[in-house]
Write a structure and sequence with these properties.
The complex is a heterodimer of chains A (380) and B (553).
Chain A: H1 3-18, E1 22-23, E2 35-46, H2 65-71, H3 75-81, H4 92-97, E3 125-126, E4 150-151, H5 161-166, H6 177-189, E5 194-201, E6 207-216, E7 233-236, E8 249-255, E9 258-261, E10 264-272, E11 275-289, E12 296-306, H7 307-315, H8 320-324, H9 328-338, E13 341-343, E14 350-367, H10 371-379
Chain B: H1 2-14, E1 38-40, H2 43-54, H3 74-79, H4 85-102, H5 108-111, H6 124-138, H7 145-162, H8 165-176, H9 180-183, E2 184-186, E3 189-191, E4 199-201, H10 203-214, H11 221-228, H12 235-246, H13 250-262, H14 283-303, E5 316-320, H15 321-327, E6 338-342, H16 356-361, H17 370-381, H18 396-399, H19 408-415, H20 419-432, E7 447-448, E8 451-452, E9 457-459, E10 462-464, H21 467-475, H22 480-493, H23 502-514, H24 519-527, H25 538-544
Antiparallel strand pairs in B: 1-2, 3-4, 5-6, 7-8, 9-10
Helix pairs in contact in B: 4-8, 6-7, 6-8, 7-8, 10-11, 12-24, 13-14, 17-20, 22-23, 22-24, 23-24
Classes of the chains: A alpha+beta (380), B mainly alpha (553).
């Protein structure tokens, strides 16, 4: 059969029967209308290159604020807080987080204490892309001076100051609690699920002009009996009141089955560790390796991530920070020092960190809101 | 007069009338009738009766003894079924549970039409009113005095012992529900006044036969009233009831039960798939696959009153979220609802045999099975018997992961060279292999173990290139109409048609063909026929039956 015909038929019926914009995620034969590919992101991880022996962190991992607080206590204070050692469990977090001079929350007031400086990545290799276009890390009109990495494939000029910042913070590594929790949270409650739609695809192997759009799904993941993500499920896009809440789009191309995009400012939904985010990634570009069967794909997004946005997330991580071994004040100071993109026009200081995110996705059908619903909502 | 009938028949056909074409039916051949039977209620009939009588809020728990499929139908097997001691225990447990729910404080005011003089003691008058009321539906006839007296006595004794009228009522009701009068549909007979010395089904037995045939449940009040008035012995009265029943929404329930039986969909209860090989296949997919096929059937045959043969070629169906993942089509009902769906022209899916239900049901847990699929087509849809395989079949060729035979066609070709196997595989495999581009979970594929799958074949000399082509060959196969006629008649009567009934089946087939293969016409022909109700005393049948011949046709 001709899958192309299948798609044509579905598209034709879209208005008449379902009145929805149905987007097909599977491959179709050539010689017909442009096709559409759809994916739902299943895991999203900060792109931290982790060497086998953690060589990128020669002084080891950072200590979290629990430990910083504990180390700063005198012996009598330790005795008092532990009831002379009789308390088997100590509420470390709530004491540690409020260790400002007047019991201020140090995540809300990260400069109120002077913590040890953050141990940052000293490795030379990183995930990411050459976002600023130069290979030496020198300042440009839109960037600040920074040290570049080399890509895993030897590409010079890789910008990933987010990695330099967080690569030695245990909780942000792939096995750390922040990352694991966030992926598990989305999997179990369906919040912050991102849909990627690639439209105008004439040839899945090579096409120099496609459009890549990003949406939020309002349906939970479809899982099989083993808890694995099931491809080819249908997901409706978030269009509360008939209006899309997401929908950033960038131009892209497919070369030898690899989709890459131009840069563009993209808004993505996010949920993890009890925090909802409307993430903005500036100058974001995407790389997506399309698979033969179209069912599962791997990708990487890279772009500039605002420091304020990052600190909003880290500041809200709460007690998880104890087990994830993280410390707001140290990260806050280092983030501002390492920021390499989007300088403030007034101060000239950079406000965003170059970054990369590795993600996995499975094929999905993306269901757009009914045309008439959208229209009526727009008319209101 | 004959000319007028012929003309109206032609006009009806020319204008594409799909319902009953009155006036053009030829008289049915005479029938002798079979011995009266006792047919055990099926699980779905039991559940439907309880829901009809007491409401859907009553939970029916427990398990039912399996029935033996006979002549392709469990319904025929039910005619010869017995209740095992363990089965009776189950019925008893279910009856007690249902009775307790009926008399519960939440339901008693609605389900029991009277209030006792005292809750703490028996009330024979109220008990009598209740049992007469429910007994008429449960037993499918008005209760005799003896039939009323028994549960009333039980209710009185239990009510006294337990100090509660309602507990007594529950005891009596539970007793009624393990009675053969409830658990079996019994062919009660009476002398036939028009044929002295012969017997006929009494009106209530006719009502039950009609109701279980068309609705898969107990007769409703109107049907029992018609039976009570003797209207079912009268052609006009019978036709009126049949027409009413065919127009009822309950017809869908009845036809779902029939096709569920004919297609052996009861096997979905035990379907298993290897989750490593088929991770997308789940219990929800299995449930929806069955439902999809039944919805397709009901929509085409009942709602649209379409040509039965189109069941093998139709691209129209219904889709749910779990099925969309297997078919790889978008479904704008991720909430679990259904949407109408039409596969596009040229798609590899068209017709019942390309749906997930058929493909997955007739497969192994970890791989497809051209043989099972071919056999199911031959047996269920063409009514051709395929012998069971011998007990010592060597399956090593199929189970060897390093076999050089990569595709099922390769493996079966090697297997079918064994003379003992070749005979049956010649019948099953050429059609089963047509479905090989649908794997054991119902998903499309083009290769197996890296080798391209060739789905071409032939059905009784008609060549095709794939499963859709097989569907077209099925649609035009001359064995398809007589098969559905045979199955519907067997289902209606609860028995395998006898050889002497072949002219009758031919007659029904002719009417079915004249009606452009519309199922409601076939149902009407059989439901309104004398044959459906024909019974004969054993001695009469023995005298009428021709000598036994070995009929291989």
């Amino acid at each position: 059969m001709s899958n192309t015909k299948a798609f044509s038929e579905i598209t034709r019926r879209t208005g008449a029967v379902l009145a929805t914009a149905l987007v097909l995620a599977v491959s179709f034969a050539a010689n017909a209308q442009p096709k559409t590919l759809g994916f739902v992101i299943t895991t999203w991880n900060t792109g931290l290159y982790e060497s086998k022996f953690v060589d990128e962190c020669p002084e080891g991992f950072n200590i979290g604020y629990d430990e910083i607080w504990w180390r700063g206590l005198s012996k009598p204070e330790r005795a008092r807080l532990t009831d002379n050692g009789l308390k088997s469990r100590l509420d470390r977090y709530f004491n540690a987080i409020r260790r400002g001079p007047n019991k201020e929350d140090v995540c809300m007031n990260p400069t109120i204490v002077k913590d040890p400086p953050l141990l940052t990545v000293e490795g030379k290799v990183s995930y990411g892309a050459n976002l600023d276009g130069n290979a030496d890390g020198s300042a440009t009109a839109n960037t600040c001076k920074h040290e570049n990495f080399t890509g895993l494939d030897g590409t010079p000029g890789i910008d990933n100051q987010m990695y330099r910042l967080l690569g030695c913070v245990y909780g942000f590594r792939s096995y750390g609690q922040f990352e694991v929790n966030a992926n598990e949270n989305r999997k179990s409650n369906g919040n912050g699920m991102t849909l990627i739609e690639v439209t105008g695809v004439d040839d899945e192997k090579n096409d120099n002009d496609v459009k890549v759009s990003f949406y939020r799904a309002i349906d939970q993941y479809t899982l099989d009996g083993g808890g694995n993500f099931t491809p080819f499920a249908s997901y409706r896009v978030d269009a509360a009141g008939g209006k899309l809440r997401y929908g950033s789009a960038v131009k892209g191309r497919i070369e030898n089955g690899v989709l890459t995009t131009d840069e563009g400012d993209v808004n993505l939904p996010f949920y993890g560790n009890y925090t909802y985010m409307n993430q903005e990634i500036k100058d974001m570009r995407l790389r997506l390796e399309l698979s033969e069967d179209g069912a599962k794909v791997n990708g990487m997004a890279s772009g500039y991530y605002g420091v304020d946005q990052l600190m909003f997330y880290i500041g809200g991580l709460g007690p998880i920070s104890s087990t994830a071994i993280s410390n707001c004040p140290s990260i806050y100071l280092a983030a501002h020092e390492l920021a390499d993109g989007h300088p403030d026009p007034q101060t000239g200081k950079c406000t965003a960190l170059s970054s990369a995110y590795n993600f996995r996705a499975v094929a999905a059908f993306i269901i757009h809101p009914k045309a008439e619903q959208t229209a009526s909502a727009d008319q209101k | 007069m004959h000319r007028v009938k012929f003309r109206s028949c032609l006009i009806a056909l020319a204008t594409g009338m799909t319902l009953i074409v009155s006036g053009c039916d030829q008289p049915a051949p005479p029938v002798t009738g079979a011995a009266p039977t006792m047919r055990l209620l099926s699980e779905s009939q039991y559940r439907n009766i309880i829901a009809d009588l007491f409401g859907a809020q009553i939970t029916v728990g427990g398990s039912f003894d399996p029935l033996v499929r006979t002549n392709g139908l469990l319904t025929v097997g039910a005619t010869n079924a017995r209740i095992t001691p363990a089965g009776l225990e189950q019925f008893d447990r279910m009856a007690r549970s249902i009775a307790e729910q009926v008399v519960s404080e939440a339901n008693r005011d609605v389900l029991i039409p009277c209030k006792p003089a005292s809750v703490s003691s028996p009330d024979d008058a109220c008990a009598t009113a209740f049992y007469k009321n429910v007994g008429r539906i449960l037993y499918r006839h008005p209760l005799t005095d003896d039939e009323v007296r028994s549960p009333v006595a039980v209710a009185a004794a239990a009510g006294r012992d337990l100090g509660n009228f309602y507990d007594g009522i529950a005891s009596g009701l539970a007793g009624m529900m393990v009675s053969p009068s409830f658990l079996f549909s019994i062919d009660a007979t009476e002398p036939d006044p028009s044929l002295p010395g012969k017997v006929r089904l009494d009106g209530y037995a006719k009502a039950a036969r009609l109701s279980f045939f068309l609705w898969n449940t107990t007769p409703d009040d109107q049907l029992l009233t018609a039976a009570e008035k003797g209207a079912l012995h009268d052609k006009k009265g019978l036709n009126a009831q049949v027409d009413r029943m065919l127009g009822s929404p309950k017809l869908e329930t009845g036809m779902r039960a029939f096709f569920n039986d004919m297609l052996a969909f009861d096997d979905f209860a035990k379907i298993e798939k290897d989750s490593i090989i088929y991770p997308s296949f789940s219990a929800a997919v299995a449930e929806d696959a069955k439902e999809q096929s039944l919805r397709t059937i009901v929509d085409l045959l009942i709602t649209q009153q379409g040509d039965y043969r189109d069941l093998f070629t139709t691209r129209k169906t219904f889709m749910s979220g779990p099925l969309g993942r297997i078919y790889r089509v978008p479904v704008d009902r991720p909430d679990g609802g259904w949407i109408p769906y039409e596969f596009p022209e040229g798609d590899q899916r068209a017709g019942l045999i390309t749906q997930i239900s058929f493909a997955a049901l007739y497969s192994h847990p970890g791989r497809s099975s051209p043989t099972l699929r071919g056999r199911a087509i031959r047996e269920s849809l063409l009514c051709q018997k395929i012998p069971d395989p011998p007990g010592d079949v060597d399956f090593s060729l199929f189970n060897d992961p390093n076999s050089p035979n990569k595709t099922a066609r390769d493996r079966l070709s090697a297997h079918a060279t064994q003379p003992a196997c070749a005979g049956c595989h010649k019948l099953t495999d050429p059609i089963g292999l047509a479905m090989e581009r649908i794997d054991g979970a119902g998903q499309l594929r083009t290769t197996e173990s890296g080798a391209s799958i060739d789905p071409s074949g032939d059905l009784d000399g008609v060549k095709f290139t794939d499963a859709v082509g097989l569907g077209k060959a099925m649609r035009d196969n001359p064995a398809v109409p007589p098969c559905i006629v045979n199955r519907v008649y067997s289902y209606a009567t609860g028995r395998t048609p006898e050889r002497t009934e072949q002219p009758l089946l031919n007659h029904f087939e002719k009417q079915f063909t004249s009606a452009q293969f519309r199922l409601p016409k076939l149902l009407q022909s059989i439901a309104a026929s004398d044959a459906l109700f024909a019974v004969a005393a054993p001695e009469a049948r023995a005298a009428a039956a021709p000598p036994e011949k070995d009929n291989k046709s």
